[in-house]
Every structure is written in structure tokens, then in C-alpha cells.
Predict the 3D structure of the following.
Amino acid sequence: MIKLVGHRLLYLLPVLFGVALLTFLIASLLPGDLAYVLLGDQATPETLAALQHDLGLDRPIVLRFAHWLGHVLQGDLGRSFRTGQTVVAAIAERLPVSIELMLLAEAGALAVAIPLAIVSAVRQGGRFDRFITGAAFASLSVPAILSAIVLIWLVAVKLEWLPATGYVPLGEDVGGNIRSFILPALTLASGEWPVLMRVLRSDMISTLKEDYITMARAKGLRPSRILLVHALKPSSLTLVTVTGINIARLLGGAVIVEYIFALPGIGRLLIGSIFTRDLVLLQGVVLFVGTGFVLVNLAVDVLYAVLDPRIRHGRR
Amino acid sequence: MAAAELTPALEAVPAVRRARLGMVFWGAVIWIAMLVAAAAFADLLPLPSPTDMDMLEHRAAPTMAHWLGTDSLGRDVAARLIFGARTSLTVGLCAPLIGLAFGGAAGLLAGYFRGRLDTFVSGGVDVLLAFPPLVLALAVTAFLGQSLLNMTLILGFLGIPVFTRVARSATLALAQREFVTAARALGATHTRVLLHELLPNVALPLAAFLLVAVAVTIVVESALSFLGLGVPPPQPSWGSMIGEGRENLDSAAWLAFTPAGVMFVTVLAFNLVGDTFRAVTDPRRSAS
């Protein structure tokens, strides 16, 4: 167990270094020098050169990367030159919104996927199973933009049940906060449930063929008990992995959904930094998102080993 | 015991589905063919210009002159849809080819030679996959500038790690098989084994994946255009049409729903064809 985690950690270091390097390169090699962005219209060759020197932009790129990485390792991601806020503070401010959205979306997707998968697996090949399999396939082809505008049109414009956009902080009004998250969470969940349903359904089908399930049936256990107690846990390994990957991805903010519903999460911070050409902020947020993805994936791997003794003991 | 029971059940499902998919599958193929033809010959079709504005007739209902009505600037919706298909299909078809070429080659080499090369390639794949694709695409388009070529190149680059994974895992499994050992024993060079023995076998899963990648790329392209970072206006694109239509959801919802519906059917069609192709070419299934 400890060996497994250690092995994964050792492999992680070069990957994390690669993430940092790529982040730095994206922001540095692309046209649009920070000094130029800062000066804007007032840029003359002399002021430009002076500012580039002050910012250290005239030094070789390797030195700049080392300098930047040194600060990053101390937890200093720099400061947005537009708002003056530190990047770490900006991320800390936006992260709870993205996490709340992610939790609500995953909970919604799992609430739909698990019962549908269980029923489909039990009635494998039946009319309900075929219908759900088809519906899942169709839902997978619905882009988030489409489900978002359909939901806004139906729920906000036609029925006027919920606001189309706008965010209410949790501290201000809990009910209003939840209401502002319903449509974005539904949009995300409508793209997530088919994947979760498919993996649980196929794992469940193979679990139901195991001898110990036949044994449990022969003992006369109630079908609901067999399904929920004996079959669900061993079938949920892939489901845990896929949910984990989704969480890792959504931690980086759902860019499109946060943009459409005007939620001030990480995704919106990121797209804002692109629109305002706030290079330091962009660099910091991209690094955070990439590193977060790698680390959550590690956590999923470890959790997987905890759940599945075959992996824990190195036998597969 | 359990495994023996499992096999027939797993194979029964695709057989049933394949028979049922027949009509749907051909419908999807016909839709894609019509769309490609319309996009390719858009200049020859009797369509009004997709960029001419007519403020007197904005948000008009369908007429003989404007089959699908006009948008909020009085531009013809049907023409914009078809010229938008040109954007979506150009990016959607070209970008995955870039991913296929580079990712397929890297995966093939990594899976065959293993060792240090494999470690390096797999590490690179993990680094690239750590970035959400839209984020990388957004950042790069914002700085490199918006054009059809830039977008195709970036989305193509973003597809490389996934194609690498598919090619590598297929090659890893194939390289253990007897025909590869036999070819090596007969004195075949590495190049010959790679090109004549492995490539034809890896090509099938890659081709099936290519169709799914086309669907994904169309969605990402529309998301970029929706955010205003796709092809530069006034060039039409489905994503920017949806974005513009979103402003008028209360008065003219069809302006957003028409391009969104066309995009959904297109994405569904590519997914369906890709899925069917995968089921047919999967040796485990077609053996039955």
C-alpha cells in the first residue's frame, strides 16, 4: 500500500514538473509581452525596455523559469497586475463556487445514474434497458451549450421558476444560493450521468453472473438486498474512478457553464484572465488547475487500491 | 465458470443492437454526407449571402427568400448554418487528422519499443491531459489570434495525447502476439514490423476513435466560438450563432435552437457511425 503510493508519488514529480514547464511556456512564449500589455498605448521603445528590465523579462528564459518555479514552490503565484490581488487569494475566493457546483452536479448525476444502471443491469436486454442505453447515447451527444440554453429557455424564460443567471453567496441567502446553482448543476449532470450509468451497468452485469450472487439467491435473500448490499459495492470500482476523474476535471471549473450562468468560479476566473490578458493570473490559474487534476487523480488511484484488495496486494 | 457464462451474454447484446441500428446508422451516414456536400458546395447553392445584413427584416420568420428566417442582424439563417457547417467540418475533420498522425505514430513507437521511450511518451501524455482541453485552447487562441488555421492546429495538437493512448494500448497488446514474433524471427526489420504488421492492425481502432474525435472537436470548436474566441466574425460558425441567439432567448428562441439542433444531430451522427464502426471492427465481438 505504502509502496504503491510511494511509487505513484515518484512518477508524479516529473509530471508535475512538466505541467509547470508547459504552463510557463504557454504564458511566456506566446506573443503579447507582459511589459507591452502593462504599458498599452504608452509603450515607447525606451519605456518598454526599462519595464522589461524591471520585470526581469530581458533575462534568459531558463533563469526566468527557475525564478518563477522557486516562487511557486513557496506558494507565491504572483499578483494580478489588474486588480492587485494575489493569485492565490483570487483562486481561494473562487474555488468554493466551483467545488459547490462540482458536488451538486456529481450528486445529481449519480442520483440519476445509479438507479437506472441497477434496473438496466437486472433487466439486461429488455425494453427498459434498451431505452435507457439509447437515451444515454443521445445525452452524450448533447453539448453543454445546448442543454444550458434549453434549460434557460424552459425553466427561466417560459416557466419563470428560477433565475437564468446571477449568483447569491452562500453566506447571504442559503435558499437563493442553491437556486442559483440548480440550472448549472443540471447542465453539467446531463452530460455526466450517461458515462456513470454505462460503467456501472456493465460492471453490474458481470457481477450479477458471479457464483456468490447465485448463492445469495439460492439462500432466498430478498432481491433488493442482493442488489444493494452484495452486488453494488463490488460493481462500483470503475464508477469510483470515473467519478474521481470528473471531480478532478470540474475542480478546474466548468468554463462554459460558469460563463453562461455567470457563476464566479475558477472557470470564470480563467476566462476573465484570458479576456483581460492578465498573464500572471492566467499562469497561476492554469498551474493550479493542472496540478489539481494530477493530485486528485493520485487520490483516486489510492482510493481504488483501498477499495480493491487485488490491486492493494499487487495481484490483478 | 463465471467467465464462460459471461461471454455469450456480452456478445448477444451487440448482435441485437447491430440489427436494430441498421436504419439509424444509414440515417446518420446520409446526414453526414449531405452536410459535407452542402458545406463543400455552399458557394454554388442558391443561397443569400451569410454576411449581408438587412436591418428592416431582422428576426423575420421563414419566407421564400429566407427559408429559415433571419437573425437579429437580418442575416439569412439557412446560409449561415451551411457556411457555419463549413467551419465546423473543416476544423472537426482536419484537427483529428493531426492528432491521428502524430499521436498514432508516438503511440505505435512507444508501444512497440517500450523502455525509456515509452516512459517519456506516457509522461508527456499525462502532462498534456492534466490541462482541461478548453483551457489550453482558450489560452492559445487568445494569444495567437483567431483564425480557422490556428484553431485547427490547436485542436489538432490537443487531440495528440488521446490518440497516443489509444495507439499505445493497442500496440502493446498486439506486439505480444505470435505474428509479430514470427515476423521478427523471419528477420523482418523494426520498420517492416511497425509498418506492415502492426500499423494495419492498429489502424482499425484508431479509425473508429477518429470518428468520435470528430464529434468531440465539433463540440469544442463550437464552445470556443460561443465564447467569441473561434473564427473571427462575421464568418459564421454554429457556436457563435448559438451565442448570438442566446441574447434573444425570450423573443426569438429558434435563433439559438436551430444551430444547436443541427449541431446535436451532427455530433450524434458521428458518434453513432463511430460506435457502429467500433462494434464491427472489434475482433472480440465480430468473432461471434
Q: What stands out?
A: Chain B touches chain A through 52 residues (CB under 8 Å).
